[in-house]
Amino acid sequence: xxxxxxxxxxxxxxxxxxxSCGAERATVRYVGSVPPTAGLWxxxxxxxxxxxxxxxxxxxxxxxxxxxxxxxxxxxxxxxxFGVDYLTAVQQxxxxxxxxxxxxxxxxxxxxxxxxxxxxxERSFQSLPSVLLSRCDVNGPGADGEIRKTTPNVQWLxxxxxxxxxxxxxxxxxxxxxxxxxxxxxxxxxxxPADPPAHRQAFCGLRVLALNSCDLTWPQILECAPMWPQLExxxxxxxxxxxxxxxxxxxQSLRSLSLSCNPLAPDAVLSLAALPRLEQLNLSxxxxxxxxxxxxxxxxxxxxxxxxxxxxxxxxxxxxWCVVDELAxxxxxxxxxxxxxxxxxxxxxxxxxxxxxxxxxxxxxxxxSCKILPEDRRGAELDxxxxxxxxxxxxxxxxxxxxxxxxxxxRYLSLIDKYxxxxxxxxxxxxxxxxxxxxxxxxxxxxxxxxxxxxxKKLPASMLVQKVKGLLYRLLKIPAADLKLTYTSPKMxxxxxxxxxxxxxxQFYSIEDGDQVLVxxx
Length: 522
Fold this sequence. Notes:
This protein is 23% helix and 17% strand. The protein is α/β, with parallel strands linked by helices.
């Protein structure tokens, strides 16, 4: 810790205030001396604990505490900013450089022209429909009533990464924005209000709220929720949310909720099942592996999530097809995203897995951002009938197969009603190991080396990309680590597909007989 002889004035209420130090944000936890050094120090807890050095102690003395053992630092007041009020930030972000305009226009009566442009600037603030002050170090509302006069028509406000430390300060700003509908408060650290219902009027028209990366728990969000009586869209990604409690009496108008990138506990999501208007739910990257609607039998409709239409389950750990059967119970689900889950079909082909999803979810209209065409659905459902026809026959066939079969294939009988029972010759007998022996004719081409001839090889569909690179090393004498592979198919002319994992098979990437593999190296 060095000594800085210049000590700027520190606010009397500095402890608990938010500060910026370059691109980093922190909360002041201590103001005072730190012997044996001279002068005033601020003890701060960084939002990013990687930025800190200790837990608030120095030479065996605990000056303040941090949640993370390396989340704290001592800094000189001259090194930090306590920020500016809302109107100062607006003027800095949106002001017209009046002196520059006057100089460019070359007016002799510069003072009158300057007054004219100042009036233009003031009018331009009044017409702003949105104010974007992300990371502009806003620390509070400023003079009482001035926001209402200066930016009265704001409908969308971005205060992402501000220096406000209390919900009361946010409310003092929004109370003056009577048309406000959307508020971005991500990457803030706001102390919970003492009396949340007292601030309902400040957020009475709010429809959209983002609180990403605010280090919040779900109980804290529910504690704040009485402030947002009309909220429809809530985004709370990358917080500290694991357990979810039922939102009784709050958030009842919610239509969209994103919990992405939160470490949700098993079954936690069912606490949201009674939200009456929830149409869209994002549960991507939450560690979800299972979900059960035990209020009803397979093939029936659940009473849970009565309005849910769009669901995102990307980048989770779903492995069991029974989870998809549970999703089929949702009465209004029409759009599902389920990418990057270890959910595989018996043959290991991603295209087969997609067909199974379509066949099992009869009401689905969009899967993984792609609209399901009528011919896609028909093909998937007919293949599903054939794929499990032999199992259906072994379970007794007819309209009353064994309960175990019905449990595993809740839609099977309705598909037979739709298309008719499969013929014996149509049944697809499971051949789980047949693909290991399937050989693909693959042509290697070298787009960056015009003089190198194409190489044609027959390779097993089950061959790992790692082994393919080993083969190419023997042929080209170029290290496997330097090789970058893509492929093209005659069926999708003009489209180049990336081969980005050495531990996947050719079959995983849906490489087929006659495809070309493009080989490049660094």
